[in-house]
Design a protein that fits this description.
This protein is mainly β and 119 residues long. It has one domain: Rieske [2Fe-2S] iron-sulphur domain (Rieske Iron-sulfur Protein, 3-layer Sandwich), CATH 2.102.10. Helices cover 0% and strands 39% of the residues. The strands form three sheets. A four-stranded antiparallel sheet has the order 2-3-4-8, with no helix packed on it.
């Protein structure tokens, strides 16, 4: 692993394994995450569980940097986890991502500005 990353970062996959614009489910040390490659060198990771309906966000659709839940249409900003409106009112946790030598590493600790989704 890259010496610059702390021990909370876990290698999840190779960057080439993620298609641009297609969410993917990943289990990162027991945490279900939706990984979304929004550009050739940009990947986001959020908790995969919709805070409104407890369904997989990785099965939703991407619109720019917004991931829409397939069940009721809740939309979450991939950068902040903030829902853009009802029915969801609670943000999803956002996890830091590092791209190192063609590999995707994700931290198991949510970004400080996001709240962890209660289990």
């Amino acid at each position: 692993m890259n010496a610059e990353l702390d021990t909370t970062f876990v290698k999840v996959c190779d960057l080439e394994d993620l298609a641009v614009g297609t969410p993917a489910l990943a289990d990162v040390d027991g945490i279900p995450m939706a990984l979304v490659r929004t550009a050739p060198d940009e990947v986001h990771a959020v908790n995969d569980v919709c805070t409104h309906a407890n369904v997989s966000l990785s099965e939703g659709e991407l619109d720019g940097c917004t991931l829409e839940c397939w069940l009721h249409g809740s939309r979450f900003d991939l950068r902040t986890g903030t829902p853009s409106g009802p029915p969801a009112t609670v943000p999803v946790a956002v996890y830091p991502v590092a791209l190192v030598e063609g590999a995707v590493y994700v931290s198991t600790i949510p970004a400080a500005s996001t709240e962890e989704h209660p289990s």
